[in-house]
Amino acid sequence: SLAGLVTDFAFYAIFSAVISTALSKIMFAGGGMMQANDALRRIEEVLDAPQMTVADNPQAPRGNDVEFCDVRFTYEGAEHPALDGVSFRVPAGSTVALVGPSGGGKTTAASLVPRFWDADSGSVLVGGVDVREMDPHVLMDDVAFVFQNNRLFKSSILENVRVARPDATREEVGKALSAAQCDDIIAKLPDGVDTIIGTRGTYLSGGEQQRIMLARAILKDAPIIILDEATASIDADNERHIQQAMTELCRNKTTLVIAHKLPTIRNADKIAVIGEGTVLECGSHAELLAQGGVYRRMIEASEKAGGWNTPFQQPLTRPLPQEGSSMHGESR
To answer: What is the share, in percent, of the chain residues with pLDDT greater than 70?
Structure first.
């Protein structure tokens, strides 16, 4: 009948609307549950992470040199070691550059100094003391590091820099920013060093963020510096500023630098070529060129691809391009 048809239509019209609304709520609730479960899983991973061991009788370092002694390290779940018998020394006040193919173990080696991980065997020494035998607070006070993918806090530039030394004055922060070639950044910001970075604030380019990170390291004034490709993936103008800031940062400091820019590598006191988890060659730029080994072949390959510009003792096939360009294929 017509009355029954109208009743059925009204019922299904109302029921359809209720069902669609209910299904939408269930979908949103399901999505929220998935996000909550993922957040809880990540929190549990942090809580379950092994704590850094602390020596019962911590030893104080007897200098600022860094030495790797037959270091071996394998990441959890990996089939092959990331480091397999690595040995080299960074004398106090000198600069050692780590170069080599991607995945060769350079970043892993640098990460063992501030104890982001601990070696499975062998020793990483700071001032003649195994880093595992040092007070972690003393170790962190002695080491400053700047990595390629640093991120700033959603706070003011002043506080982002002062996190390295909370008792620093505004004047000291300003001097560190100037030394890191950040004056042009501060000048264009609406509130200067008090400008908030990030959400509801000002966004900086990758190169500008890197300069702020260098200012943080300069303010910390640690005797040991670790730089992991600090000039990678940035424009030429920022690279010029960052190279100047790195010169200021590393003056009279023990420096371990992972580099792919020739000026940084060529000016290092020693160069360690790391590949397949071991040190393949070690020596100065001129010494490694004269050996005609892996380092020489890396430069020749890069030269053919339009890479570095360097004063070779023996001529290559054609003149090299400008020295600010990077070595192709060199990354972590």
So the answer is: 84
